[in-house]
Amino acid sequence: MTVTDTTDSVAEDHPPPEDRPLLAGPAVAEEFARLFDLHAVPMHRYLARRVGAEQAHDLVSETFLAAFRQRETYDPALAAAKAWLYGIATNLARRHVRSEVRGLHATARAGRREDDNLAAHDGRVAEQVDAQKLARRIAPAIADLSDGDRDVLLLTSWAGLTTVEVADALGIPVGTVRSRLHRVRRQLRTLTTSEEAHDHD
To answer: Could you write out the three-class secondary structure of 109-165?
Structure first.
């Protein structure tokens, strides 16, 4: 696993037309049922990594309830339903940002203890945990990002949104998304480079 794996491999294409439903009229319930079937599971995975599985379950429900209540404000010409829904989910997740930051720091602390234990195995299992170790080691850096930078990074790497979808979800220009990703990549690459140098000391 490298930092670029989580931020560079994103397409720039706009979402397909079928993800741009018209949420009005007698078929609105069916449209929301389709959107739930399409997005609820991956959205839960994204939110669970941010705030924990139990809170993620509640947030998915809250996201679709909020979306239904706001359906008359949704303009399919401006954003795909996927981006709109993830924007709502991310705003709701921000209420739990303190728990998220605490969780990231706890992940890093647990990772350091596990790394100490692995040293006793003469490196026999080190290759199997390289990716996990890297993820734990950058957790503090992710926790220390601004809310906006963290949202851009995690919507891209954990939710798998394109830069266009992230821009639509957060209501910011695509250029801003790209500049934030560039800045975050640079910060995380610096961290991982220093960690790798430390491992070889």
So the answer is: HHHHHHHHHHHHHCCCCHHHHHHHHHHHHHHHHHHCCCHHHHHHHHHHHCCCCCHHH
The per-residue pLDDT for 110 is 61
The stretches in the chain having pLDDT less than 50 are 1-13, 17, 114-115, 118-129
| Residue for token pair 């596990």 | 114
CA distances from 159 to 130, 136, 163 (A): 22, 18, 11
Q: Can you tell me the distance from the alpha carbon of 14 to that of 81, in angstroms, rounded to the nearest whole number?
A: 12
Neighbouring C-alpha atoms within 13 Å toward the C-beta of 137: 23
Do 89 and 46 meet the contact criterion of CB atoms below 8 Å apart?
yes
Whether 21 contacts 76, CB under 8 Å: yes
Instruction: Tell me the whole-structure pTM to 2 decimals.
Output: 0.71
**Amino acid at the residue 157:** S
> CA 62 to CA 70: how far, in whole Å?
12
pLDDT in tens, 98-134: 667 776 766 666 655 544 554 444 444 444 445 556 6
Going by the DSSP 8-state scheme, the letter that residue 6 receives in this structure is H
